[in-house]
Specification:
By secondary structure, this protein is mostly beta strands. The chain folds into two domains: about 5-305, Immunoglobulin-like (Sandwich); about 330-465, Cupredoxins -  blue copper proteins (Immunoglobulin-like, Sandwich), CATH 2.60.40.420. About 5% of the residues lie in helices and about 40% in strands. The protein has helices at about 5-10, 145-150, 190-195, 350-355, 450-455; strands spanning about 40-50, 60-65, 70-75, 80-85, 95, 120-130, 135-140, 155-160, 165-175, 205, 215, 220-230, 235-240, 245-250, 250-255, 265, 270-275, 285-290, 300-305, 335-345, 360-365, 375-380, 385-390, 395-400, 405-410, 415, 420, 425, 430-440, 445-450, 460-465. Strands 20, 21, 23, 25, 26, 27 and 29 form a seven-stranded mixed beta sheet that branches. Strands 10-9-12-17-14-15 form a six-stranded mixed beta sheet, with no helix packed on it. It has a five-stranded mixed beta sheet with strand order 11-19-18-13-16, with no helix packed on it. The termini are far apart.
Length: about 475
């Protein structure tokens, strides 16, 4: 089964499942997520209007009963302290994705902490926030189901000197597999998803609802922080009639540039900060189209212009590069090198015996169980490393390293143009990428594919820094 065939089975079409989404008229102004109650997050069940007024509400799992969970905002250098209370019927944890935090706060069950017990367990997460940027938080226990039911939210760490914009907004992109009554289809963990592209849904939301429009005013400049919170869907967003500028990736400043091919591509867990100048005509609407999967393009929403302009044209100043974050620069000439090969999957030569045991993927030739925490590499604290990630499969894999950020220095043997700092690198089928970083954060750290069904079926491992 090809990726397009799998997406076709679960692709979002407004003509089909969401044919009558009349709620769009009431969703013109796309809000930010809810504000967090200071110092507390409760994971619990709730009912939310994912698909709009034409459909029943959807039973979800959410932080503080919302999807996405509360948008957490701090300033760079501040200290986060949040007590998480688990009111669900399943154990859980919270991983603050992309933050370079102490190992004990990383939220990986049985590796960095005991699970937060169901029906009343609590855990206090506390750590400094060294780097500005756009991050997010989600469980790291039973991740395919818990994230797939809505447990995620945005974490924004504001820089001291931010670009001058009229509005700063977060779009948390979610992907859901719903039935005709807008209920979540409970087929989590099926082997078809695990061995192919992962759990791709039929309904895409922005900040927890199907949106028809996002209102803008001609002449304004927006900072859009995009977060891909989907289990498996890769987004390729084309802002028709507009020319967005990428200013940060995975939270970290990058040389401002136009996205390659005009599309902002985000694999699961990845983020991008855009500067978007509203240069359209007052009163008109311009579609934002997701066309990552061939022949399965759809309209995510429209940028709808108010009749009155904010000003004649967006200000042209304020494009100075943001200050870099605090990661140490790797010494490439002295770096130790290692190769990590990701294999398996349908059409990938996984032995039938492994598939019969629920393993679909391999790391360096072997499937690794989700809670097998024997490190495959031990790195010296404070030393520089280059890891070559090799995607020896027919499928995309966003590979995430915990506790660190890394530069992507080469793809398929060619130096990258922007040498961007990331925590999750998207590997296309048969692609190779070289990443470089200083192993400056001690502990046992997971690294894994962030297609969550791939993670739990063999494509995860642990790196020790000591």
């Amino acid at each position: 089964m090809t990726i397009d065939q799998q997406v076709r089975d679960y692709a979002l079409t407004r003509r089909d499942f969401l044919l009558a989404t009349a709620a769009g008229a009431g969703l013109a102004l796309l809000p930010s997520a809810a504000t967090a109650a200071p110092g507390r997050l409760r994971a619990r069940e709730a009912n939310v209007a994912l698909a709009g007024a034409a459909y029943p509400q959807t039973g979800v799992w959410g932080y503080e009963g919302s999807v996405p969970g509360p948008e957490l905002r701090f300033r760079q250098g501040e200290r986060l302290k949040i007590e998480v209370e688990n009111l669900l019927s399943a154990d859980t944890t919270v991983h603050f994705h992309g933050i370079r935090l102490p190992n004990a706060m990383d939220g990986v069950p049985e590796l960095t902490q005991a699970p937060i017990a169901a029906r009343g367990g609590k855990f206090v997460y506390e750590f400094a926030l060294p780097d500005a940027g756009t991050y997010w938080y989600h469980p790291h226990l039973g991740s395919p189901e818990q994230v797939g039911r809505g447990l995620y939210g945005a974490l924004v760490v504001e820089e001291a000197m931010a670009p001058a914009v009229d509005r700063d907004r977060v779009w948390v992109l979610g992907d859901w597999r719903l039935d005709r009554e807008a209920r979540i289809v409970g087929d989590f963990g099926n082997f078809m998803d695990a061995s192919h592209a992962g759990r791709i849904g039929n309904t895409v939301t922005v900040n927890g609802a199907v949106r028809e429009t996002f209102e803008v005013r001609a002449g304004e400049r927006l900072r859009l922080r995009l977060v891909n919170a989907a289990n498996a869907r890769i987004f390729g967003l084309d802002f028709r009639g507009h020319d967005p500028l990428v200013i940060a990736l995975d939270g970290h400043p990058v040389e401002p540039h136009r996205p390659e091919g005009g599309r902002v591509v985000l694999g699961p867990a990845m983020r991008a900060d855009l500067l978007l100048d509203a240069t359209g005509e007052p009163g008109r609407a311009y579609p934002v189209v997701d066309d990552f999967y061939r022949q399965r393009a759809y309209r995510l929403l429209d940028l709808r212009y108010a009749k009155d302009a904010l000003r004649g044209a967006p200000a042209r100043g304020g494009l100075a590069r943001m200050r870099p974050n605090t990661m140490p620069e790797p010494e490439l000439e002295r770096a130790e090198r290692h190769r990590v090969v990701f294999g398996g999957g349908m059409m990938g030569g996984m032995p039938m015996m492994g598939m019969m045991r629920g393993a679909a993927w391999t790391v360096n030739g072997a499937p690794i169980r989700e809670h097998d925490h024997h490190p495959i590499l031990t790195l010296g604290l404070g030393r520089s490393y280059v890891l070559e990630f090799v995607n020896d499969t027919q499928w995309h894999h966003p590979i995430h390293l915990h506790g660190h950020a890394f530069r992507v220095i080469a793809r398929n043997g060619r130096a990258t143009r922007y040498r961007e700092w990331l925590d999750t690198v998207l590997l296309a089928p048969r692609e190779r990428a070289e990443i470089a970083f200083v192993a400056d954060n001690p502990g046992d750290w997971m690294f894994h594919c962030h297609v969550l069904e791939h993670q739990v079926s063999g494509m995860m491992a642990v790196i020790r820094v000591a």
